[in-house]
Write a structure and sequence with these properties.
Cytidine Deaminase, domain 2; binds zinc ion; 2 domains
Length: 301
């Protein structure tokens, strides 16, 4: 639909009722308001109403033409840049419509009263665009769909970039923790801490680290997590305490220091103290990480 036939013109060019925000002055106050007669007051009031109507009409008309003008301008740029195809007839129609809209825009913007605004409206009828602008409609629809698609792709890309940045941030943090953590040994000289871990909240990028040998009980862990941990050990080396892992400590810290952490959006990365490469979580941790929809480096992502 071209601008000439836009139904909003009816309101713009039609006679308006006095707006409620400015009720007419009361006749009995004619002297108090400084008028010599009711007729004089009425004349002044009519002038005020006309000015109010004109300002509102002019503003609406400028808004309307800007809408059409901008759409057509963007469409023309998209065609010129070959963002999508238009045949020569369509291209010509867009050019002519754009020229007519440019002319009309100036006429509307420089209009001084309702009469000139009406003339600006009518002037469009005399242009070739009036008979061609319907050819622009399908192109505009196509262009809008193209923009929507572009926006969708950009949003996906931005969210992927965000996730990558969070993951890299977690890995960098992990490397720092691993370098600053030395292995612990028991009285027999056996290492106690085999792992450090960083848990990342992929919703916010918040990170917290943990280490094996944290000493937290199963009850304490489950109370904070809001889900149950497997009751039996999956690794022979953790039978005595299957709840000793760095991943559990990291999640405990993450949930303790951040509100609303959703386990489904947590990413774990683990490393040996002093190490430089991420390693997968142990078989114990793989179970609860997988069961609760979380992800871990070198395990499921
Ligand atoms: Zn583990």
């Amino acid at each position: 639909m071209g601008i000439y036939h836009d139904p909003r013109w009816n309101e713009i060019l039609g006679t308006r009722a006095v707006t409620a925000s400015a009720p007419p002055p009361r006749v009995e106050n004619v002297r108090a308001l400084g008028y010599r007669s009711v007729a004089e007051m009425q004349k002044d009031w009519d002038k005020t109403v006309a000015a109010m109507n004109w300002n509102a009409a002019h503003q609406s008309a400028r808004k309307l033409i800007t809408e059409y003008y901008e759409d057509c301008r963007q469409l023309r740029i998209a065609i010129n840049r070959k963002m999508f195809k238009a045949d020569s007839i369509q291209e010509d129609a867009v050019d002519r419509t754009f020229n007519a809209l440019s002319f009309m825009k100036t006429a509307i913007e420089t209009a001084k009263d309702m009469e000139e605004l009406g003339q600006a409206h009518e002037s469009y009828l005399k242009t070739a665009a009036c008979k061609l602008d319907h050819l622009c409609d399908p192109l505009l629809a196509e262009y809008e769909a193209y923009l929507d698609e572009l926006k969708r792709k950009e949003l996906i890309e931005a969210s992927q970039q965000k996730l990558t940045a969070f993951r890299l941030g977690g890995n960098a943090q992990l490397r720092k923790v691993a370098l600053g953590t030395s292995a612990r040994y028991d009285s027999n000289g056996q290492p106690i801490c085999h792992m450090v871990c960083v848990a990342v909240d992929m919703k916010t990028g918040a990170t917290e680290s943990g280490r094996a040998g944290h000493g937290l009980t199963r009850t304490a862990l489950e109370n904070r997590f809001g889900f149950s941990l497997p009751t039996t050990a999956a690794n022979s080396f953790t039978v005595s305490n299957p709840y000793n892992c760095a991943e559990l400590d990291a999640l405990y810290q993450l949930m303790g220091k951040n509100v609303g952490v959703d386990i489904k959006q947590v990413y774990f990365a683990s490393m040996m103290p002093g190490g430089s490469f991420t390693i997968p979580p142990c078989a114990n941790c793989q179970r609860w990480i997988k069961d609760n929809g979380a992800k871990a480096a070198r395990f499921n992502c």
